[in-house]
Amino acid sequence: MLLKQERLRRGLTQTQLGALTGISPQDISLIENGWRKPFRGWKKRLADALEMSVESLFPEVTDDG
After folding, report:
1. Which of these, 9, 24, 53, 64, has the minimum number of CB atoms within 10 Å of its CB?
2. What pLDDT is stored for residue 23 in this prediction?
3. Can you say whether the dihedral through the CA atoms of 30, 51, 13, 6 is positive or negative?
4. In 10 A of CB 38, how many CB atoms?
5. Residue 65 confidence (pLDDT) above 50
């Protein structure tokens, strides 16, 4: 998932990202591994902490098939 890639690219642990966002490291792990979808407010906090837009960090998958 892009969240994990961006976190690692910036040299942050889940604990450090959690401290920046107020989201528990356990929840960050669940999001990174696809077990939990982040709340809208969490998306914004994660994107802000990683200095990205919400849209680029969490691109929406659409079924235009």
Report:
1. 64
2. 99
3. positive
4. 21
5. no
Using a 10 angstrom Cβ sphere, with 0-12 exposed, 13-18 middle and 19 or more buried, the burial of residue 45 is middle
Neighbour tally for 54: CB within 10 Å: 16
Determine the Cα–Cα distance for residues 53 and 13; give it in Å rounded to an integer.
20
CB neighbours of 9 closer than 8 A, spacing ≥ 6? none
Q: Are 43 and 57 in contact (CB under 8 A)?
A: yes
Q: Would you list the domain boundaries of the chain?
A: 2-57
Q: Which fold has domain 2-57?
A: 434 Repressor (Amino-terminal Domain) (1.10.260)
Encoded amino acid at 4, one letter: K
